[in-house]
Amino acid sequence: MENRTENSQQNVLLRMEGINKAFPGVKALDNVSLTVKAGTVHALMGENGAGKSTLMKCLFGVYKKDSGHIYLEGKEVDFANSKEALENGIAMVHQELNQALKRNVMDNMWLGRFPKVARGVPFTSERKMYAETVKLFEKLGLNVDPRTVMSKMSVSQRQMVEIAKAVSYNAKVIVFDEPTSSLTEKEVEHLFRIINMLRDEGCGIIYISHKMEEILRISDEVTIMRDGTWVATRPAAELTMNEIIRLMVGRELTNRYPPKDNKIGDVLFEAEHITALYSKLSDVSFTARRGEILGIAGLDGSGRTELLENIYGTATRKSGTMKLDGKPIRNRNARESIKNGFALLTEERRATGIFGILSIRENTMISSLKSCRIGPFVSKKKMRAKTDWSIKAMRIKTPTQETKIRTLSGGNQQKVILGRWLLTEPTVLLLDEPTRGIDVGAKYEIYQLILNLAKEGKTVIMVSSEMPELLGVCDRILVMSGGRLAGEVNAATTTQEEIMALAAKFA
After folding, report:
1. What is the pTM of this model?
2. Helices 440-455 and 410-423: crossing angle, nearest 10°?
3. Of 3 and 119, which is predicted with more confidence?
4. Residue 24 and residue 311: Cα distance in Å, rounded?
């Protein structure tokens, strides 16, 4: 996308100056400033825990800044809550979805501002709500039935609804926090069309993402943060991926994937004719070997996640058999799966991964408490030692082990969950989007941990929406389409085009 030189002449829409914010034991923001012009996309980048989301939450009224100034169209503002921010033209698409899953799409769209039958009449007009939702979806090109219950939609579809909700406020500034973390390539293209439309209408877009290809393509300016401080603001056209990485992590990172030196052995896990009871997953058979990193590719709704859930027992199998090291296993539930040496890192960490009100230590140790037993008691000393190992191994940014996990950045939450499963010493590790919302430096560390597990003779089965990630990390890739196994490819010799062709086979 060409650089828009005229942007430098445009009016400043938002200015944040000298923003400071501290939490117990950590200074999250240290004198951070940000300027966003009307009709531009301003990218905000940094490692997990750099302070990007915290800065935006201070803008949006979720957090109260300790000091500093925020100016919107030249007028100083200090929103007490998100309702105030929305009413004054600031909207935000949060990284973690927080939706009423038992309600339908249009209820979620208009929650807190339901259109009334008439002025002064306290009754909601379903007809108006439906009509307004259809009108907005037509404008944005979304093919979603407003009456669909949210829980029946995929994560990516729900993400697009959340994006449409933010647009519906006719905001002057819209913050997108990791908006593509759960979107397919086709949906990413759709989102970019929406963003370009908003930019052309004079909206100021703040775009947070770890995906550098997206940043360089969609943004006009880029601000980079590190450890709660401002590092640099540059025109996107002047930056390269290597320069962004150097500014983000403070060091050169020449390779995005560690060299593969794992040795693949005999078949460890076998799945035959796996068919789900409540999804379209049907008749999937495959094997996975010791020391192998087996990728699973496919479009959204292809059955990738459902396959992992059926193997692990969190979804009900209709039929099919499984063997581990030649012995039949059933994995009827998570408890039985853990006992059999399986671990599952789920796609939606907030909904099915973390225990938000518990500490990092409790979240880390919850699946391996038996290893800390001394007789009938649990040793806190052992728990602390194991949690300390996890924090160091995963490079989790936290002041203490007692810190509530919900206060961490999304990427650091992901690291805690991965550390939790590594402590169970699994024989088969199932990973569903393991690097979702994680910065490039931390991704490399996670890839190295995955490779180390494979080198120990473990089997890793990994779902990812990022094709380069599957090609860079995996040994072999299964491609799902329409709930069925469409094919199998060698990661070293295949191409993205071959994988996409298989992914569309039964779609």
Report:
1. 0.68
2. 10
3. 119
4. 41
